[in-house]
Each structure stands twice: as C-alpha cells, then as structure tokens.
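Bumping with the actual sequence this time:
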Amino acid sequence: MYKFNDDTRVKIPATIQFLRIGYKYQSLKDEDIDIDFNTKIFINRLKPALEKINGRDFSYDELKNITNEIYSVIKNNDLGKEFYNWLINPLDKVKLIDLEHYDNNDFAVVDEFSYGVVEGTEEGSFRPDINILINGIPLAFLEVKKPNNEGGIQKEFDRMINKRLQNEDYKKFFNMIQIVSFSNNMEYEDSDDVEDIKAGSFYTTPNGTKTSFSFFREDEDTFLDNYNYKTIDEKTIKDVTKDCLVQDLYNYWFNQFNFPNENGIAYKFNHGKLVWNRQLKKDIPKRWKVLFLKDCIKHINTGLNPRDNFKLGDGSIKYVTVKNLTTNGTIDFSSCDVINEKARKIVHKRSDVSKGDILFASIAPLGRCVIVKENPVDWDINESVFCIRPDLKKVSTEYLYSYFMSDYFIKKAEHSSTGSIFSGIRVNILEEMPILIPNKKVMTQFTNQVSNLFEMKSKKENENEKLISLRNFLLPLLMNGQITFKD
C-alpha cells in the first residue's frame, strides 16, 4: 500500500468525517450517476431533492430546462451574484435549497470530481480533492494535502488565485461554488509571515483577484466531544477507500506523473524530465512509450449469445452478462441466468476465460471490469462481455485493469463513439485505444502496491459472501421456528 500520501493522511479521513456528520458518499462509479456536463450538477441527486423541497414531480425535460437556466446564470460576469440570489431567495424560480428546513436537503461528497471544459476529455480541467454537493449541486470543494507538503498551504492559495480564478473557462464554475477550503492537516503557526503561510486550514468565497483566505475558528472541545456522529459501516468505508486508493494512485502516478523516482521522491514535483508525445498530445516521462491496446494484449474474446446455440434457464452454470459486472470490480452472480454444462462448454470454447484475464463490460456505462481470480468452472460469459488477456511482457493485469477503470480511459472511449449517444464500444475501437506504458521498474512498483489492495479486497469479499450465505441459510429457519436463540 502506498503510505503517507495526501489520500491516506488527509483525503480519506476527511471524506469519512463528512459521512460521520451526515453526508452521503457519491461514487463516480455508481451505475445511476447522471451528470450535466455544463454545470457539473448531479441529476441523479438533483431530481429527488427538488421534488422533496418543492413538493412536486419534475420531468427530465424540466430538469434540463433548470440546468440550462443555471448555466446561463453562472456564465454572467457578476462573480456569481445572480446565482447566489437564486439560492437564498428564488422568487419565481424553482427552489434549489431549503434554507428553513435543512433536513429536506440532500448533502453528499464526491472525491476527485473533474471540472472539465471540453466534453469527452479532461484536458484543461481541474479536479478538487473533495467536492460538496447540496441537492446534487457542487457548491463547495476542499483541497487537502498531507502535513509539510511542498510549498505549504501558500502553494494552494497561489494556484487558486493566480491560475484557477484567472482561467476564463473556470469562471462559470466559481460563480456557482460558494465556499472553497484548503488544509494540510497542521496546526496554525502564529509566527508565520502573512505572505508565506505554510500550515493550517483556511476557507474563502471565490472573488476573483480580491479573493482572501480566513482561518477557521475552532468549536469548543465540548461541542466536538458531544456531537452525535453517525456510525459508518464497513461497506461504506470500503467504497470510499477503494475509490480513492487504487484509482488515485493510478492518477497520481500515470496522469500527474508523480510516481516515486529512484530517490523515492515524486517524479514531476522533483522536475523529472518530460517529453512531448504526439499520440497523447501531452508531455510524458522520458523513456516511457505509448502503444495501442492491441499491441499489449494477447487477445480479446467474447462469450456466445444463446440464439440457436443453447437455451437459457436449463442447468446450474451461471451465465454472466454486462448487468452482472459491478463498478466495484466484482461479479453479481445473484441475478444471473443459468445454462447447462453442455452449453458452458460451447460458450467456453469461444470465451476461453482463464485466471488473470480481465472481464470488460462493452455496453455503457463503462468502468465495470473484473479480474478473474480462478479458472471458471461454474460460470461463463455472454457476447457483450469482453475477455481480455494481457501480454504480461508488456503490461501487468493490475495496470491494465486500472487503466480500464480510469476516468481518462472512460472519457476517451466515450468520446470515440460516432453516435450522439454513447451506448458501448466495439472490439476494433478498443484495440486502437492508446495506452501509456511506463518503464518496467515503475510498472512493477505499481503492480506490487495495488496487488496488496486487490488481495485485501478479495479477502473481504470472500468473507462477505460467506456471511451472506450463512444469513440466507439461517433466516428461513428462524422465520419458521426451526431454530431459536437463547436469551
């Protein structure tokens, strides 16, 4: 596991703390996620929230009109004044927040959400660490860094004022965002020069070049000690850490290029050499290369459609389709159709699913992949599930899986669609996708670190399956009185 980075020291604990005070966790891998590109509003959260606080149903056409109007308002050159007035006093507009009854609102956090300006790519975007959604609307974000980060908290101030707030493409987002906060999880230093603040936690409201930052005033210890924190179950913690650790490590190493160099120091931060790559249209580390996916895999196979080949519903072999592949990297066998052993052999002759392969859901939404842990004996796949076998001389299974699950790949693949609506990806398109190949040492380091995470995750999943199986066995017996518990 990659220890003592911004995620493990600050971001994950901060995210969990939000959940303890009542926020919900919004994963970017949820299957029902629906984000309006122009405003970054999460429609899947906006719809039920607006219906609750306005006391009526909203059609998706109405929601589209609302987000279009919000987009029109936040594009004003007024530092967000009109949008702010809409929030606090909607008048004849739809009420976006219930300021009188806070419990009517939906509070959520989403980590590493990208404010992209060109649909289908993250080029030119910014990505705050923790984003606060109120009724699906991104109204605040936090940037959290580990203690003693390079440049201190002043570096974050400079990036905010001199880069983000000066970018014309970002101004609409900051007209909507009400609060921005920065922390490196350190105590304030009273002796700090006001022009060079290194430590502490600060907040601001975006105000162009006049933006200033304020100290947090800590609550009394008794308030914090007596606060009624919510209990967070293990599954939620797993969802947060899984979303953060593997994909953030991939992003940190292979998008930001801050993998550890030979001295264990972040490569790009330490002025590591970058060279221009024409295929990716960006700088990449020296001696790294870019291949097409077809050049670093052995094959892409698929399963078989029943049609005239066999019938569903006969037998006990699980017939896995894209709907059974989850965003958590697992197979949900509970809703599988079944086939018999003869049909399995017919399917397997084509799929050839084996240990170490990657199952890939070819139908939207992308981001549903599974690493096959053992050779299948009681299941196989249909034609919409791709079975991808990495060429281990070029890439590791863990690296290729992380690539398929990355925001970069998903957006690149969706952008490759020729239609107006992305419905899936074909084998020939997938084979032509570019993939960044690091040097062997970095590939090995990454594989070793995420392998530990995958192994830990697999053990937990096995434990959960056993508990679920035990529950399903005992519950009917309890219901009909065949077994009882002593007081």
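The tokens above came from a reply further down the thread. The longest strand covers residues 137-144.
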